[in-house]
Amino acid sequence: MAWRVVVQPSSPVRLWTIQRVLRQVERLMLDDVAIVLLADRGFADGKLMTYLRENLGWHFRIRIKRSFQFQLEGEWRKVSSVQLQPGQAYFTPQVSVGKTKLYANIYLALAHDRPSDEDWVIVSDEPTTLQTFAQYRLRVCVEESFLDLKSNGFNLEASRLRDKFALSQLCGVIALTMLFLVLQGVQVVVSGKRRQVDAHWNRGMSYLKMGWNWIRLAITQQRKIQVYPFLSSLPDPQPAIASKRQHNHAFEREFTVLSRFPAS
Fold first, then answer.
1. DSSP state for residue 227 in the 8-state scheme
2. What are the sequence ranges of the domains in the chain?
3. Contact assessment for residue 66 and residue 119, using Cβ atoms and an 8 Å cutoff
4. pLDDT tens figures, 122-161
5. How far is C-alpha 107 from the chain's CA centre?
6. Can you tell me the distance from the alpha carbon of 134 to that of 129, in angstroms, rounded to the nearest whole number?
7. pTM
8. Distance between CA 133 and CA 126 in Å, rounded?
9. Is the distance from CB of 44 to CB of 63 less than 8 angstroms?
10. CB 91 within 8 A of CB 109
11. Most confident option among 181-190, 225-234, 254-263
12. Residue 108 pLDDT > 70
C-alpha cells in the first residue's frame, strides 16, 4: 500500500520517514475502521507511539527490548528484572516506559513462552490481556513476504540497483504483482484446488507462491486467468503450517496469569 526506499548507513529508520509512509496509508483507510499497528522492537519509539495515538488515532502493539525501563507504583524497574517462569504471564496497569518517561499511560504484557523458551514484552496503548499476544502474533505473517521478496520469489537483492528512484519504481511494480499473485493464491485455496499447486498435506506455501505456481499452470495448460478485484476480510481459510510439531505447540500453549508483580 505504501513504501519508501531509504538510503542510509544504519538500520534504524528515522521517525519522519516512518510518518510519511503512515500518512500515505492513512489516506487509503476507511474512517470507521479501528487500526492497530503491529511492529517489532526496532520501532519501539515513544515519539512514534505519541504520533500514532494523537495524530492518527491508531492503536498499537509493539514489542520492546528487555533493556527498557518502566515506572510502576512510582518505582523505575528494568524489564529484565521481571523474572517469569515458563508458562507465566503478567499484565501491568498504566505505566511509563523509558529512562526519562519516554511514553506515559501505556500498558505492558509480559510472558515467558514455554514451547519456545522465549520472553515476550509487548507495549500497548490499551489494557493488555492474553489476547494481546494473539494480536501481535499476526505480525509474523510478514515473514512470508520477506521470503517471497527474496529467494522464494522476486530475488529483489539480485537486481543490484543502487539508485533510490529506480528501486522505488521497481517496488511499485513488485507491489502490484504481489497483490495479483496473492489474489490468485487465495482463490486457489477457496476453490479447493490448492493441492494442484502445493503438494503439502497442509498449506506449506505462501499465498503469493501458490498464485505464482497457478499462473504457470494456467499458461502451460492454456487456461483462462481470472482477475479478482479484492481480498476477503474473512479469517485465513488455511493458515500455513511450517511443521506439525510447531503447529501442535501452538495448541499446547498455556499461561498462568500472575495477579501480583513478580519478584526479581
1. -
2. 15-139, 150-233
3. yes
4. 999 999 999 999 899 888 878 778 888 888 888 888 888 8
5. 19
6. 9
7. 0.83
8. 13
9. yes
10. yes
11. 181-190
12. yes
